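Reopening this one. Same input as before:
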Amino acid sequence: MTQRGHTSESDEAIPFQLAGEARERALERCREVIDGWGLTMPDVEPLVLDFGLGRFDQIGEIEFWIANEEEAGYCGKFLFLDDGQTCPGHKHALKHETFYIVKGRVRMVVDDSEIILDQGDVLTMPTGARHQFSGVGPALVLEVSMPSIRQDSFFDDRRIADDGVL
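Same output, byte for byte:
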């Protein structure tokens, strides 16, 4: 089951969120891993996303938004992926992103090429590049990008609405 949630940056609803007990279990697992790494996350309400597919353990992620400053032109957020979890294939018409692997390993597929990113690696994602990424073990990714805006994420899986913010 999903429900709409809110970011601290705006009062706009974000679709694709887990609710209730499933959300709490996901956050507990995330906290356990991050605490084990000795990291402190920003004091924001995390988004626990299943992309509306109801398969969070396979297709999902937890996002900690630090900033989404549309007028200033930047966004920063942490993305937590558990082992095998995937952010599904998508592209952006406007958004340019840079990913930094804080902890763990990530399998990134860009267009038709696959790369394994290790802790400390940086990957720039140009506007329009189709990409998806998965945790190879638990992973924490810092995304620095242009602002996340509505209707700029175009998913390969047509069951995922294009009105989400990523």
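So the earlier flakiness isn't reproducible anymore. For the record, The first strand starts at residue 2 and ends at 6.
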